[in-house]
Each structure stands twice: as structure tokens, then as C-alpha cells.
Amino acid sequence: MLGITVLLTSLAAQGAEADVRRDATVEAVERVMPCVVNIGTEEIVEYRDPFEDMFREFWGPYYRRREREAHYSLGSGVIIDEEGYVLTNLHVVQRARRVWVQLADGRKFEAKPLVGTTRSDVALLRLDTTGGEKFQAVHLAKDDDLLLGETVLALGNPFGLGGSVSRGILSSKNRRPPLESEPLDIADWLQTDAAINPGSSGGPLINLRGELIGLNVAIYREGQGIGFAIPIKHVAEALSDIFTPEVQGSLWFGARLRPGPAPLTVTRVQTGSPAEKAGLRADDQIVQVNGKRPKDFFDGTELISQSPKKEAALTVQRGNERRTLRVKLAPLAEVVRQKIGLSVQELTPELAAKFGYGARDGLLVASVEDNGPAAQADVQAGYLITALDRQRTLNLLNAAEVLAAKKQGDAVELGLAMWQQRGPFTARREGAVTVRVR
Question: What pTM, to 2 d.p., does this model score?
């Protein structure tokens, strides 16, 4: 009996010793750290973004503009899908021509920056792999599933030196309603006293369940122990806007899906879009795309983008009713042509150099239909569309979204740039014309 008592006491002591350090913090870090990556860039190009002054204020001597054609480790990121999709801050990769990602296990991959949004400072990358590789991914927390005072962990992989962890509490949630067209700032971010170093910008802020509740942004050097992160709600909204058939396949779909596992939930539908014309509504759940059950948000979006003959068959659950809707996707360039009668091209470095424009100046007019709305306004091939209704026009998606919202007979103002010969000199001129949408 004494021997059994001693054995049980010994086992209990061993169990207590094994548990004393392995608390919820350690377990959350072990789950998420393999998803945390270091972001490095090459050939940095000069770019002025709305966040620069703010980050200079936050980071002081740690933040400085980089020289061109250099290789720097600029921040961190986190894998959010097993196919190799990575989230980071837009300011980390904004000025880079090439992006490299180093995983927690030391492997390096070149990454393709898919798209980003200056409003929320969120960017999405995809690892360039040989195919078939799967990656450990963090789980996204539910929107607004935040508790003031709860323990939070700021993770990063700064400067490629390996994973780093800091612990604190959630000091404050975002403090104002979202504003439609303004960039997010301090009032919209989560606040924590967990230390966020400059090299950890873009890394995950997680809860003790190991769920992503925010993307680390900055520290505030004027206040001791104050750090900020973009809330998961804004991260999810940004993902919904930047990973779409419009971006992936240059196809107008017109509905936004909530990031996460299947079934896919429709969050909003654009008026006059192919999705609305097919009968898709907000809160519909898409359970099948072209006869296949999507695994998650990324898989579902890709299935829609790759629909045969640009027609997506969506099986939708609406309450207790299930129906199949057929959405005819429209090429973005065709939306522009149908509305104002011209063909446009996004500027490649080669086109920009040939026509003497900057790579981010706007859309190049390739051809103009005879007697079309643009021709009647004297728009000519070789002109550059720099803005629509005074909104900067950087790509086809910008242009198609503005024009798609217009009804027949509505006016749209085209900001234009062109080169004109004046004697022996060539000068760039800028102006604007009004075109009636057909």
C-alpha cells in the first residue's frame, strides 16, 4: 500500500512539474508561431503613402525611407491559408518590386503581392511554390470577439532572426464607427500594452485560443507600452475586398464573401452587378460552386474566377430553401467599353516607358470607338485616364467599379493626361472631360 502511495505521489509531482510552465500562453504560441513569417524585400521603389508620416511619428529613428535597389527585412506576416496566402501590412511591401518570405522553419519563398488596400493598411501575398505544398495557417477569430482586459500575444519574426513573443492585455477596442473613404488610424485600431517592435509590424496579435484578432501595426513612442493592431473585423473586410474575382480574374462578379471556412456567406451585393442580376442576396450561403463544395473563402473565390465560359453556377442556401443561381461574369475591360466606348490597358513598365508615363499614373487608352461617348468627348488613343469622378484610377477594377454604378445617361468626369507637341518641344498636359454613360 505504501509503495502504491509513493508511486501515485511521484506521478502527481511529475504531472504538476510538466504543467507548471505549459500554460495557455505557451500553448497558443506553439500553435501559431509556425504560421509567423519574416518579410524581406528587394529593389525598393520610391513611394509616398498616407501612413508614412504617422509611422515616422510612431517609430522615430527606427523608421526611415530606404534606398532603391536594396534588400531589407522590413516586417513580419502570418499565413492564413494552407495554400500559402500570407497577410501583412501594406506599408511593409508597398515600395517593393520583389518580396521574399522566410518561414519559421527557415525555408524561404518568393511571394507574389496580390493586392493591398491603403485604407486599412492590409496586404495579401501568396507564396510562390513548386506546387502541392501545404502550410500551417492561423485561425481567424470572429468579428468583434474581443474582451477588454483579456490576455493577448503579439507575435513576429523581426529581421529574420526568428520568432518573438510579447504578452499584454487588450487595453482598448476601436473607438469610432468606420468612415467610408478615410484611411484607418489610431481611433480604429486595437490598443495593447504588449510590446510591438518595428520588425514585428504585420505579424499577428492573437488571443489565448491562438486565434488571429488583429495585425500588428506600430508602437507609440510618446507613450510607454502602447501598441496598436488592425482589428480582425477590418482585416476580414479588407480580405473580402482584395481577394475577389475582379482582382483574381479581372471579372466583374459584384458580390463580397466573408473570409473563413465553407459555407461562404455573402456580405453584400453591388447594385446592377452580375451577382445582383442573378438573384444573389446578402446573407446567402454559397454551398457549391460549379458543382464543387469549396473548402474555404480562397477556394470558393478561385472556383468562381475560373468558371467555364465565365458563367458560375452557385448553389445557394437561403433560410430553409436551396436554389441554384447562374452568374454571368463580365470582363472588367468589357464593362468599361460598354459604358463609355473605349478600350483601356493597365500600365506595364514597358508601356509606361514607351508612352512616357509613370507606372502608377492611370489607365492607358488603347482605342476609341467611332461615335462612342468617349469619342464624342474627343478622347483619343494614347491618352491616360488618371481619374474617374476625381477618384484616382490605378487599375481596371477602379474604373469598372465607378462605371458599373452609373446608369444610362449619367455623367462621369474623366481626368486625362496626354503629351502634346508645341513646336520643337513636347509637353505633358492634364485636364478633364465629361462623358455620358450609355
Answer: 0.77
